[in-house]
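#data-curation
PF: Archiving a pair of folding outputs for the training set. Convention for this channel: one message per protein, sequence first, structure tokens after, nothing in between. First:
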Amino acid sequence: MAMTALPLAYLFCTFVWYAYQSRLSEVREEMAERGPLVAKVLADSSEFSLVSRRYDDLKLTINGLLRADPSIYRIEVLDAQRRELVHAAARAGGVEPQPGYYEAPVLKRLMWVAMLGPDGKPYRKDGPSGASGMTVETMGYVRVTMSPSALLLKQTRRFYVELLVGSIGLLACVLLAWQLAKGLNASLYASMQALREADAEKRRLIRKVNTAVEDERQSIALEIHDELNATLIAARLEAQRIADLSAEGEVRDKAQSIIKLTLGLYNSGRQLVRRLRPEVLDMLGLDGAVEEMVRHYDNARSGCRFDLQARGDFSKMESSIAISAYRIVQEALSNVVKHARATHAEVTLALEEGELRMQIRDNGGGFDPAQASSGIGLVGMRERVYAFNGRITVETGLAAGTCIHIVMPIR
């Protein structure tokens, strides 16, 4: 609505300002044109009245002109010495004079005619010596003071009509913009609602996928534990029985080799079971499982020291959230070992205000977020966090280490 209405409002204000200024300009131009013309016409028509001193007739003419033209405020007739002879002013109330006046001279034109005397010689009666043809004398002045009030009133009426037409157009445009904005808002709201529903469906799907993956891992871990490891134990016991029944020689040595091989396979199977489904997570909770993981990485002699800080009671945490948090920490520590080249890493777990807050910080080389693309591990961490409506923030920089902040609601 604002994107549509603001340009229209700006155009409307510009139109009003231009219309108002143009009206003032037209009034000024008309006054500048009419004032000198009135003064000139009145001066030309006042010659006979001044010569014959018929000032009453001149005043009647001036009053008629004032009544006929409301734009004239005052008319003054002066003699040659600029002494006032006749004056008249407009009687209408609310009329304001224009600064200054327009002045035109009243000219007396004399034509000298040669006469014949009794002696037959030409002469000029009452004519000055050396006068010939026509002479022009200034016998007075006419001053006209104009008033823009009447013209402004006329132009103001026109301006109000234009303003009314412009306001109706603006109102129509605003109503149209409101209808368009209403339709766009409804469409945008529907799109956002569909996006929210799609995002919620995506989160539910991710949770289902993660749950299915964890269930499958648990199933595989149980198969390995119950079937493969049991078979390896049986094979080791049989090999041990063969070794006990055999005398010193090749058969006994082969039996001992089988015992070592089955024992190694059994240990590998148990490690694989712990990776697929950490048993300590069910027994000791999230903090205990992460503590064992941190201890494992700390004892791996990778050149990096790992520490853990945990606050809160993790025993009543939902299993799906606990396993997701465990996998996030597992992926983060794996990245520290593989890529960070760090000498110290710290894991912080806290249950505060109905939220699980995790932080994994290292002093490694870090990376440039603007140039480095997100790897599969970081994408997987984000998806696990978003599946539970959580938030994840990665703070890093070249030679500045990396810090991952995670907040997951548990209610």
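PF: Second:
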Amino acid sequence: MTRPEQDTAGRPRAPVIQRLLGDPRVAQARLGKRIGRLPYFTRVESATGPITRMEGRDILNFGSNNYLGLANDPRVIAAAQEASGRWGAGVTGSRLLNGNLALHEELEDALRRFYGRTGAMVFSTGYGANLGLMSSLLGRNDRAWVDEEMHASVLDGVWLARATMKRFGHNDPEHLLAQAKEDTASGLCVVEGVYSMRGDRAPLRRFLEVCRETRLALVVDEAHGLGTVGTRGLGTVEEDGVVQDADFITITFSKSLGSCGGAIIGDKEQIEALRVLTRPFLFTAANTPASVAAALAALRILQEDPGLVAQLKERVRSLREALVARGLRPLPSDGPIVSVEVGADFDTLQAWRLLWNRGIYANPVIHPAVPAGRGLLRLSVMRTHEEQMVRTVADACADVFSDLQLSHEGRGKVAS
């Protein structure tokens, strides 16, 4: 007989548990649930496409990273199903021991060829790829020069390495140069090809020049650039002509490739060294066969039809023009992320809720992901969005800004 579920509320709680439950972020989440404004952990009940079933409703989805629509492509789904039938549901081990499938090596070979490099190394997640690279390259006496809007995976990797983190202004290579000239310790510089919150791109050519002058290794995270930037979809490294010059390129499979996983791409000798030194690679289970096969199929589709990238860019252009035509001012970018500044955190959450009430899903970005008072509505464009969907979301955003009396210039409330 199954015992009834019960918690441990009657027991004395250890101090670490008391601290866990007393964290202000936990209290904020509880409050958000009570007032019905928590925009996170939304229950998704269908495949993620332009129209997605969420919380019992069909929602117009402008909050997904399925940029090329390949997560729903029948060829990608078929590849995942076939791989599960052949290799099983999981590998039940790390790449180091029993989990190094021929399928993993096939994907690594395809990735290195796609980028025209000699080495690639596949991880279970994109987060793991950045965590592993930072923690393997850096030591206690090294410096990690990191853009102030860098993703948490890089920050956590630097912390794991116990290196000294140095922050420079967003997309400001001159700030990096000034700081690195004063502190000549060995280290690296990490930037994102396309930044995940604002959607803007790093000036990679200038960052490369600064890194060469200061003898820093250059790491470019192309999580949001793969499949969205460049003629072939390699990312900003392609657009700025530094594919062969960046010391390492990191990617994720969970966006344009519609799967789950990540990779580090670079020179073969360096990749082979990482393969035996990187703890987040050595001591975790390898990717499931289905996720590897799906990523490989999506990559091949992208290689065979780079026109998918151009189609996505056209849809992005259409959304930006529609927002501007309605008096809104999206932040400058030409990537798949179109962000509009709202202002205060509460106003940002209210704006999200009003869009949700109209059957539209977007991503609210609040502090600490952005500076306090600079909250964003983040719209993610998919190639598979239709033109009418673009007009619908632009109309809705304009109405929400009007209803909440927000400045269309992205400066918070309109002055009374």
